[in-house]
């Protein structure tokens, strides 16, 4: 079962997220946000080829208006449903990716796209996995599909992520007087 974290990230978990997992997710989110700020986009277009582009219900009206079509038609033509969530239906390049590699719905694109490339479920999940290993002294490389076909931003992120995790773990330990125990969700920045 998938549980929402910060309203838009889908985390596989049976039941509500326990405090220790929420604490680690907050740390992983913070690492992802720092990497997101530090790594510039080089416009390769790769992140618009992912299969799980989440579209929130509150975002549908603006996108349909931009496309000059009723919301119902937009949903039928462009979205697929999984459980309570809606995703763009295409699995290759996004239908709104222009030939110039620019987004044709830039002003109204989903929040998940505005948060690209690293504030997404896949990357936060990967950082969570690395962070939990690193807390035990095992420093693992960033590998997997979130590397987005070796896109330039992914390679830069891979080079910095373990150091960013180390900084956050150290700060968390300093804050708590030991390994992280306190849950800062919800609403932690
Ligand atoms: S994959 Fe990275 S470099 Fe390429 S368009 Fe997306 S954010 Fe930019
Ligand atoms: S909506 Fe725009 S930014 Fe988002 S995946 Fe499609 S083309 Fe890329």
List the helices and strands and how they pair.
Elements: E1 2-5, E2 9-12, H1 19-38, E3 54-55, H2 57-66, H3 71-78, E4 79-82, E5 85-88, H4 111-114, H5 121-135, H6 152-176
Helix pairs in contact: 1-5, 1-6, 2-3, 5-6
The structure holds iron/sulfur cluster (2 copies).
Residues 48, 53, 94, 96-97, 103, 105, 109, 113 line the site of one iron/sulfur cluster (SF4).
Short description:
With 189 residues, the protein is mainly α.
Q: What descriptors fit this protein?
A:
single chain; about 190 residues; mainly alpha; 2 domains; three-stranded antiparallel β-sheet; two-stranded antiparallel sheet; 6 helices; 5 strands; globular; disordered C terminus; binds iron/sulfur cluster
General description of the model:
The chain has helices spanning 19-38, 57-66, 71-78, 111-114, 121-135, 152-176, and strands at 2-5, 9-12, 54-55, 79-82, 85-88. The two termini are 26 Å apart. Helix 1 crosses helix 6 (152-176), helix 2 crosses helix 3 (71-78) and helix 5 (121-135) packs across helix 6 (152-176). Strand 4 (79-82) and strand 5 form a beta hairpin. By secondary structure, it is mainly alpha-helical. Mean pLDDT is 86; it is low at 180-189. The strands form 2 sheets. It has a 3-stranded antiparallel beta sheet with strand order 3-5-4. A two-stranded antiparallel sheet has the order 1-2. It is globular and about 55 Å long. It contains 6 helices and 5 strands. It folds into 2 domains: 2-40 and 118-176, no CATH class; 46-114, no CATH class. The protein binds iron/sulfur cluster (2 copies). One iron/sulfur cluster is lined by residues 41-47, 116-117, 148, 151-153.
